[in-house]
Structures are given as C-alpha cells and as structure tokens.
C-alpha cells in the first residue's frame, strides 16, 4: 500500500497541489484523473524523490527513498538508449533480475525477434511503448506507475494490455494516469481526482459502480 500524508507542492508562491492525503490500496489499480497542467506528472516526480515537496510518502510502511528498487515509473516517452538495440536495452535495464534467456522469452511476447535486434532509433512510438511493457515483466516491481501507457498502441494491443494490467495487479500496486478513458474505464479499481488543487479518492471499487470516467470528468472537473 502506498500512503500519502499532507502532501503539497508549490513553485515559488504558487500552490500547485494543496495539502492532500490518500492511499493506494495494495494490489489494486488506481487511476488519477485531472486536466493537463493539474499536477499529475508533478505528483509522480515527488513520489519518486525527483522534486522537493511538503508531506510524506510511504510504501508498505517505509519511506519511498528506502524502497525505490521496488518501484517502476513508465513515462509517456520512456527513455531508452536509442543507439542500442531493443534487446540490449532490456539487458541493461533488467538489473540482473532475469537471465538473458528469460528476457528473450518475455520480449518476444510483445515484439518480433527481428525488431528487438534493431536499434531503438528505428522504433515507432508504439514499439517503444511495447519495449517499456516488456521491462515491467522483467523487473516485476511492487509499485508500478504508468503515465499515458495506452498512447501509440493499436487496438489489438490496447485490448490485450487491459488483461495484462489486470494480471499484473495480482502482484503489484498500480497507479495509472491518462486521458483515453475508454481504455481505463474497464480496469480501474479506485479513482482519484484533482479537485480544487487537492487530490481526493472519489470512488473505491469503481468498476462495480457502473459509472463512466468520461461522465465523472465532465461532472467533477470541467
């Protein structure tokens, strides 16, 4: 479980996020909703200790800086070494958690062997996204945060990814952000929203509510 207590973030005199407290339930898929510029990326950076902030984040009872090896963030544009092949990137970022043979077996579930041997500089946006998804299966983090993960993926992969993320949540605590509500609507357990510069848990057990993320966005944010 990730616990946030009295979190706030300002740039100079401008408050971006005011005092907020919330929890991400263990082995649940939480979705963070907010318009562009509301602070979603800022929140993630603060969680990971990339920016200064007020308040406290804990994961499974420990400060975040003590459990970074248990966490993985996939940004909308994941940074890979573009002059190296996809498979070599995976070997480098695997942190020795899997053998090369295990990595190869995982990788070909997402990308063809020939593509994996090509330099990342030749990859499409969607292929880079798939490379990042392979990394999740290799590292098996306890806390997984994904920003706009469905961007750039074709319909078939999007449908498949919904099932993949549901499966991951059996072992991982997951936080998602994005704007393609039709993708997230069927997999979200808990819904958090930015409202009046605060982060609040709006709905637990969201799937059972029968509500639509788009309708909630119109009502709570627009």
Automatic annotation (TrEMBL):
This is ABC-2 type transport system ATP-binding protein. Keywords: ATP-binding, Nucleotide-binding, Transport. Pfam families: ABC_tran (PF00005). PANTHER family: ABC TRANSPORTER ATP-BINDING PROTEIN ALBC-RELATED (PTHR42939:SF1). Residues 2-221 form the ABC transporter domain. The keyword Nucleotide-binding applies. SMART domains: AAA (SM00382). Coiled coil: none annotated.
């Amino acid at each position: 479980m990730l616990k946030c207590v009295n979190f706030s973030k300002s740039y100079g005199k401008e408050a971006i996020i005011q005092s907020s407290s919330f929890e991400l339930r263990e082995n649940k898929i939480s979705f963070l909703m907010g318009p562009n510029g509301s602070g979603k990326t800022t929140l993630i950076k603060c969680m990971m200790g990339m920016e200064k902030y007020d308040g406290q984040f804990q994961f499974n009872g420990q400060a975040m800086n003590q459990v970074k090896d248990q966490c993985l963030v996939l940004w909308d544009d994941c940074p890979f070494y573009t002059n190296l092949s996809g498979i070599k990137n995976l070997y480098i970022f695997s942190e020795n958690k899997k053998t090369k043979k295990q990595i190869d077996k995982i990788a070909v579930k997402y990308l063809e062997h020939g593509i994996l041997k090509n330099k990342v500089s030749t990859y499409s946006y969607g292929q880079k996204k798939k490379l990042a998804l392979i990394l999740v299966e290799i590292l098996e983090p306890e806390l997984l945060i994904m920003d706009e993960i469905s961007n750039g993926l074709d319909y078939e992969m999007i449908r498949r990814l919904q099932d993949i993320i549901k499966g991951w949540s059996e072992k991982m605590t997951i936080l998602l952000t994005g704007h393609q509500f039709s993708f997230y609507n069927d997999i979200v357990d808990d819904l958090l929203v930015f409202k009046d510069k605060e982060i609040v848990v709006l709905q637990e057990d969201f799937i059972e509510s029968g509500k639509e993320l788009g309708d909630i966005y119109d009502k709570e944010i627009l």
